[in-house]
């Protein structure tokens, strides 16, 4: 094989390795049958949430995953895949991918690597349904505030009766 081609492939493998290392989540999706306009709209939506969507050759991604000790990812790396790299998946980027998958029948979430662990499609979809950080904080504060609110309401009702 030509030395230039080998260097190009090594550069792609190192780029993918760096992207996986620096990402909190990597989602692998099959995009067979999508138009260029649909992929462009997905990329634009993800760019707004500090995520990237790239298409790489599966064999080069397999080498990057092997170097990062994700050797069980072979079933994910079959067919035409788009790889979505997220710096922070709690900012809505994972939800955006899940919504895009619901809107487009040809787009399927196959799985990914979330916080260094290999995950299947069901786990990725379950994580996407969770509320973001602000939503969780809001729910926690509501739960903490409820007893005091109920006590104040009850005391107000007792004061009205007397």
Overall 3D form? elongated
Average of pLDDT: 86
**Number of extended strands:** 5
Radius of gyration over C-alpha positions, nearest whole angstrom = 22 Å
Relative strand content: 15-25%
Number of helices: 6
- Low-confidence stretches at least 5 residues in length (pLDDT < 50)? none
SSE class: alpha+beta
Strand order of the largest sheet: 2-3-1-4-5
Q: Which series of helices and strands comes N to C?
A: HEHEHEHEEHH
Largest sheet: 5 strands, antiparallel
Distance between the termini: 93 Å
Portion in helices: 55-70%
Protein architecture, described:
This protein is of the alpha+beta class and 162 residues long. It is built from six helices and five strands; from the N terminus they run αβαβαβαββαα. The chain has helices at 3-22, 36-47, 58-67, 93-103, 121-129, 133-161; strands at residues 25-30, 51-54, 81-86, 108-114, 117-120. A five-stranded antiparallel beta sheet has the order 2-3-1-4-5. A hairpin with a 2-residue loop joins β4 and β5. α1 (3-22) crosses α3 (58-67) and α4 crosses α5. The longest helix has 29 residues, at 133-161. The model has no long low-confidence stretch (mean pLDDT 86).
């Amino acid at each position: 094989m030509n030395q230039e081609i080998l260097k190009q492939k090594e550069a792609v493998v190192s780029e993918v390795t760096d992207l996986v290392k620096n990402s909190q989540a990597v989602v692998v999706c099959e995009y067979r049958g999508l138009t260029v306009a649909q992929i462009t709209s997905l990329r634009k939506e993800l760019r707004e949430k500090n995520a990237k969507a790239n298409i790489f050759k599966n064999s080069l991604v397999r080498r990057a995953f092997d170097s990062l000790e994700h050797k069980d990812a072979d079933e994910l790396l079959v067919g035409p895949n788009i790889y979505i790299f997220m710096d922070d998946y709690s900012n809505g980027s994972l939800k955006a991918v899940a919504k895009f998958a619901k809107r487009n029948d040809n787009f399927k979430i196959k799985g990914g690597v979330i916080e260094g662990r290999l995950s299947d499609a069901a786990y990725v979809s379950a994580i996407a349904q969770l509320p973001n950080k602000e939503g969780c904080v809001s729910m926690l504060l509501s739960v903490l505030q409820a007893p005091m609110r109920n006590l104040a309401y009850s005391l107000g009702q007792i004061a009205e009766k007397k």
